[in-house]
Every structure is written in C-alpha cells, then in structure tokens.
Amino acid sequence: MNLYIEVRNSLGLSREKASELLETISPEKLERIENEKQLPNPDDVMIMAEKYSEPDIRNYYCANQCPMGQHFVPRIKYNDLEKTVLKLVASLNSMHSKQDKLIEIAEDGIISDDEMLDFISIQKDLERVSLAVSALEAWTEKMMSSGLIDMDKYQELLKK
Questions:
Q1: Are the C-beta atoms of residues 61 and 34 closer than 8 Å to each other?
Q2: Do 109 and 148 lie in a common domain?
Q3: 88-115 confidence digits (pLDDT tens)
Q4: Fewer CB in 10 Å around end: N or C, the chain?
Q5: Which of these, 41, 35, 33, 80, lies nearest to 58 by C-alpha position?
C-alpha cells in the first residue's frame, strides 16, 4: 500500500470524501494515483499534503516518484523529536572532529589522491548532517500541520 492510501485511510476518508476535501482531484484520478496507474502532478501532491495535513506526502513524492527527485532527494524518516535531535547532535559531533581535516583538504583548492578517502568520508558525514537537519525540519512542519506548534507564532519568531 502506498502513502497516499495510508494517509487517506488514516483520516477515515473514502475516495469520494477525500475528493471533496481535495477539491481539484476527482475520485477517479485519486484512484489512479493510489493504485499507481498515474503519477500525481506536483500540484496534486501539494494539495494532498495541505488538505490531509500530512507534509510527508511531499517528501514521499519527491524521493520516490519525481524523476529528478529520485536522484537527488532522500527519503526522510520521521521520528519523534528526541530521536531526531540525537541523530542531529551525533552527526554534528562527528563533523566537529573532521573540520580541521576539511580545511586542510580545501586549502589549495584541489583534492589530491591522498586526500580523496578523507574527503569522501567527510562528504558522507555532511550528508548525515543534512538528513538530520531535514528530519528536524520535517518534524517541525508535521507538528505545525497537526496544530501542535502554533504556525503563526513560529513564522513570526522565525522572521526576527
């Protein structure tokens, strides 16, 4: 079962009721999307994510169905805040010990053969940091969508 069906079912919506909520997606089109007979277009995905209050739908689409995204967008794993923060701190700590090596590698603007292995290791650590940051952003967005974080207050404070 794909995420589109899982989310709709978790909301207790029939395809017809979901179509009414989504406004621009007919029950027939929703059925084709859910049964993977038709890919949703990005606008459909945005509408589903917003109307279902499920931001994970966007990441699912980008990581699994978008032709470009499949190559560049990792699938974000949703965890609780504690696990998300621990992963972020662990990945940042790993990078902290390697920052001097990265500066050394970058000094001359060239990655020599003897620096390549260290550079690849650092690059992998940076990818873990990036994923951890994305997971924290996704968690925050999910909390705002569900009303557990006041979106207006968050946006107001973000501007400061």
A1: no
A2: yes
A3: 999 999 898 899 999 999 999 999 999 9
A4: C
A5: 41
The residue from 26, 44, 72 where one domain ends is: 72
Same domain, 59 and 107: no
pLDDT of residue 1: 67
63 plus 91 within the same structural domain? no
Q: Domain containing 11: what range?
A: 3-72
Domain stops at, among 48, 72, 96: 72
pTM given for the model? 0.77
Q: Which of 138, 7, 2, 10 is nearest to 76 (CA)?
A: 138
CA distance 73 to 65: 10
DSSP 120: H
- Residue type present at position 46: M
